[in-house]
Amino acid sequence: MQQKGQWSTKLGFILASAGAAIGLGAIWKLPYVTGQNGGGAFFLLFVLFTLLIGLPMLISEFIIGRGTQKEAVSAYKKLAPTSLWVWIGRLGVVGCFLLLSFYSVVGGWILIYTAKALTGNAIVPGVSADAMFGQTVSSPSVTMLGVAIFTLLNVIVIALGVQQGIEKASKYMMPLLFVFFIILVVRSLTLDGAMEGVKFFLQPDFTQITAEGVLYALGQSFFALAVGFSCMVTYSSYLKKEESLPYSAGSVVLMNIFVSLLAGLAIFPAVFASGLEPTEGPGLLFVVLPTVFGHLPFGEVFFALFLLLFLFATLTSSFSLYEIIVAAVEAKLPNARRKITVVLGVIVFVAAIPAALSSSTLSDVTIFGKTLFDATDYLVSNILLPLGNLLIALFIVHKVDKNLVEQEFFSGSHIPRGYYKLWRFLMTFIVPVIIVIVLIYTAQQ
């Protein structure tokens, strides 16, 4: 059955797809991983791998989605009926659900911090940012309230559908994200000592890069683009045939790289200007930035702006995770979108409880030495996402009809044939090999 929802404009699709890609990976994870792996050289490698790996993978998911006009599970079933390949779509649904179970927790933290910042309680004299973060994540009631509100926001938008929900929200949220980021970058670059941070972030020093750093850059290149769980298969299934897939994918990738650049320019100059270390790790956002902004004129205002844009980015990413699951169920139960969304929201909220309480009530519960939150994150990021990317890469090259692939690649554009040959070469020989390397490395950790 054909999907009823469609993007009303190409811009709506591009902004929604960019929103799906630009989230925790680009704004939260990339800066701290860059800080831990030498700065400029790591960022340069990330950009190169995003263009050589992430972009071909994104085009592949677009081709599968629009070529079938089906959501993720039905798309693979249509292209390879009665085969095990259909499990790629099912893996995506399961992966998105698991990802939502801890993504919603971080989304809840951001909501809580945003509320604190807007009410003037995020930066309190005499209370360290580390202590403030600890108090937030160790309070079961506060954490669960954050998860509940974050889940409710997703349910409202997804229940409204593709055009009235996801597309409309993304059209407002994504431009605001860029505006807020540019304001923060300007403020950060005007601090005393800011140029040291700019040099660290943009001046490559390859002596700081290790083999581990290269592999992190490889992994980040497709993690940051939301490829691997077939979210983009579902999104592109709503796209009209006259739109160019390579152009749309290129636009999403460039937006992602641009936001990653802005994130670095907003964070590292401020960190260096305050005499702090860029290797803080995952706490960079919630621990270092309140410290930085706390010493600036109108610091609370700028911190609130940063949290708002981070909340926007997190929401637009979670929309895509909800949509792939809702669309898969809606294919079986047409005209029940709102009921499906509400039920899914309740299930996601319940599933998020273990991760939400892993810093408080369930802090003593571990799996292979990891908290429930960290264990879920590791399973999704280091096993399921790379596996999904590998399977999609093999599927698009060895199973999907070449005529369909070419038709979708060239539909809506006059791209030189050399670009198609380059894409096919990368998907056949380069992308699978690199993903296997990442999988082997993470399996050894």
Structure in words:
The chain is mainly α and 445 residues long. It has one domain: Amino acid/polyamine transporter I (Up-down Bundle). It contains 18 helices and two strands. The chain has a two-stranded antiparallel ribbon. α5 runs antiparallel to α14, α8 runs antiparallel to α14 and α9 packs across α12. The longest helix has 32 residues. The radius of gyration is 21 Å and the shape is globular.
Instruction: Sketch the major β-sheet.
Output: 2 strands, antiparallel
* Assigned CATH superfamily: Amino acid/polyamine transporter I
Beginning-to-end CA distance, first to last residue: 43 Å
Assembly state (oligomeric): single chain
Beta-sheet strand percentage? under 5%
Report the average pLDDT across residues. 86
CATH topology: Amino acid/polyamine transporter I
Level-2 CATH architecture? Up-down Bundle
Count up the helices: 18
**Looking at the structure, what is the overall shape?**
globular
Poorly predicted regions are none
Radius of gyration: 21 Å
Number of domains: 1
Broad CATH class: Mainly Alpha
